[in-house]
Fold:
Amino acid sequence: MSAFNAIGDGRDVDQNEFTPGLEPQPTWCPGCGDFGVLKALKGASAELGRTPDEILLTTGIGCSGKLNSYFESYGFHTLHGRSLPIARAAKLANPGLEVVAAGGDGDGYGIGGNHFMHTARENHDMTYIVFNNEIFGLTKGQTSPTSPKGHKSKTQPSGSAKDPIRPLSLALTSGASYVARTAAVNPNQAKEIIIEAMEHDGFAHIDFLTQCPTWNKDARQYVPYIDVQDSDDYDFDVNDRREAAAMMAEVEDALHEGTVLTGRFYVDEDRPSYQQEKRAIGEIPEEPLAERYFDDSYEWERSADHFLDKHK
Amino acid sequence: MTDDELIWRIAGGSGDGIASTSQNFAKALMRSGLNVFTHRHYPSRIRGGHTYTEIRVSSEKVKSRGDGYNFLLALGDSFARNPKEGAYYGNEEIKPLSENLDELREGGVIVYDSGLLDASEIEDFDERVEANNWHVYDLDLRSMAREHGREVMRNTAGVGVTCALAGIDTDWIEDLMTDAMPEKILEPNLEILHEAYELVQDEYDVDAHDVKVPEGEHDEEQVLLSGSDAIAYGSIDEGCRFIAGYPMTPWTEVFTILCQNFPKIGGISEQVEDEIAAAALAVGASHAGVKAMSGSSGGGFALMGEPLGLAEMTETPIVLIEAMRAGPSTGMPTKPEQADLEHVLYSSQGDSQRVVFAPGTVEEAYDQTRQAFKIAYEYQIPSLILYDQKLGGELMNVPASHFDRDPNPDLGSVLTEAELEDAPHSDTGKYQRFQHDVKDGVSPRSIPGQKGGRYLATGNEHTPEGHIAETPENRVAQMNRRLQKQEAIRAYLDDLEDGHQTYHGDDDAEYGLLTFGSQQGTVEEAVDVLVDQGYSVKSLGVSDMMPYPVEEVTEFLESVDEALVIEMNASAQFRGLTQKELGRYGEKLSSLLKYNGNPFEPADIVEGFKTTIIKGDDLQGLETKFVPAAGD
Ligand SMILES: Cc1ncc(C[n+]2csc(CCOP(=O)(O)OP(=O)(O)O)c2C)c(N)n1
Ligand code: SF4
Ligand SMILES: [Mg+2]
Structure:
């Protein structure tokens, strides 16, 4: 008997169930790419038959971080850069939860970069969506880790001297087992990729291009875009780490030259997730830990019985 | 301080096995019916560097290290980097002998390993021996060990010599070695033990000195534990099964104990990328319905400020452990200090909404860790345990029965799915997890995955459903509700049968010594010495830092003419907290501070009290500092 009956409910779900009564209308600027993520996430969740009570959506701080105000589910709007450590602990505590983390490019690749690297490395079984608008949106348009070199903003008046971060390559070298890029302007692909990411057993990273018409007017709206899986011009094996790495490097360069390449860039279905690895060495209990606290028949261990002898 | 005690100091290089030898020796003495208390001194290095452990042994309960000591076993630093005088660290090899002479009491015993050490390298050694009436035994422990086994076994030879000289029955040591050592090394160690013992018995006059082990008997079974052990076991018994952390001395001890033990009881431990992640993981695990903790020492705790504030704002129960060491910054990693009190009380933005306990003893560390979890989960608030390298590392014997308690895995104010059905929801289905008007300010939570329980947790100010809101009405209602918990928790703590504050001495004493955390035992010992000398003194060891025990401390201060506040920091943080909380007593409280890296010894307090409070003089010297009361 589970204390968490929303998990694995398996009923039909309508995507409108994910529209909260409290804030049905997002306050994002008109034309903002963030709407695209919200829509794709609702569609994917409904299509997978996940109910609002079995999803935990953790977010960072930023315009993107407002996602869970507009998405009806269990939500944790955390701190700037900290959606991942909160998300992965929740997944360890209760592996049945559908855990999705989301945040901005500043949030995930800048202030939270260390967590990104390590969560990918450990291959936690969860989905991570980075709203990449190549700018700090909420704080009014400063240069972000993904802004192109030469990007001018109030804090980089002479144009940024820094090369942008390579988010896909970073995910791959860190250890993510699913790496994709999609764009708000491509809702069908976005939904499909989110579905794949949620179904993937391991860390699935989606670099989601979200245009910011308010602060990043100069940037392209990410149209036209090319889906590399649909194009004959790009031939690489998505399961091969080396080919994926080469492809990612090309994709990252192309973005700043005006070509928007999207699709799946690395998929490793064989690598066990962190949860599986940890269970294999006996460091995660068979039953979800969270269930134990609701199980009245569980005999809780006492230190007096288990650990005191060596002190006698 | 009585003469009827043995204070044995084993000194060597770090990496020489001093810690495990002394731990075994202490345990053997405990099993023989005596009370023991250990004190460690070690450098922040893996190998090499002078280190010692002191074991104070008495027939009475021991609460503190003593003043000085009376038996030195100097092994020599076998990892010494540079034996030459004048090198950066000086002549390291000889330090276990040369550095320990100042504190050796008159009439004390010196045993040193002549296989490694040459006393003639120490200036005026013979003169000092004579002047202090020390009894010196130089034995080639190294050769003895090498003959039967390996050189590292010279520790055992030293223990054998100690037994012969101090009148300790080697049966206790043998039993313990049999329990603790794998067979392969047991035989040679036993041979060495006996050979050393017999050699001394046969060839030396063991009664030339009167440093002997006292006799004692326990009326119930004892266990030898450190504060770190007690914190770890308190967590386990309160149902904690999740820990995330990042190593940092001295908090690493608690982290290690739980990492090693959790797999045996179905718990989860995570060593993560940094302390921000560590505290955030604890928040995430607790949010998802598990009793969770994290911790660190000063610098790592600084990184936890944001997640700690998030736990306050989202009312997510967590327990954080802060093991203080001398600061600022990297400070002195292996030295104790109590200078993180304000750091722990106030770090993170906004008004603090947390609980902080500073236990004073091993038993209190266990009890208060359990209370910390209980309160955290009942009241949905972060609870912190503030301790230091001293309490964390000192071993002492405690009745085993102290730990014979029922576990409490209760998640506190959490609803089940059935209860959620009748709980208030918004029109569109969100559970009102942060209701305005609730008893004691506690609005029960749901757990992700529960049907009908979904809500939004956010570090922003929020409505009852958790949605972001900035209206003044909602803001004030939520703030007041959260703050209300402090009063409720204070009332709960005041009603406890065993309160957290510890009183010692005569109720109607004229003077008071006030302290917090790990200095409590030492202060109590100082009270005993002062009372013996005819002074009218009592003490209060305070553990509740937040919410502060205003009534109890007020009553204590009202009952004395003057009080001296004893703490291990330079800016009198605890005295400042006391005055802030009580809003007065500036003229009644003066401070005795120590921040040289060593905890107080009873004599520091005895002399400090007599000089400043009784004679009204200022203190001379480097060890402690006096800060007079306002208007003095
Ligand atoms: C520790 C901390 N530093 C700074 C901020 C201020 N801040 C909020 S959002 C943000 C950047 C937002 O950029 P991004 O993460 O790309 O999200 P976007 O708004 O573009 O979606 C900053 C700097 C903060 N909330 N916390
Ligand atoms: S500022 Fe940019 S990212 Fe933020 S809501 Fe407006 S368009 Fe979207
Ligand atoms: Mg951004």
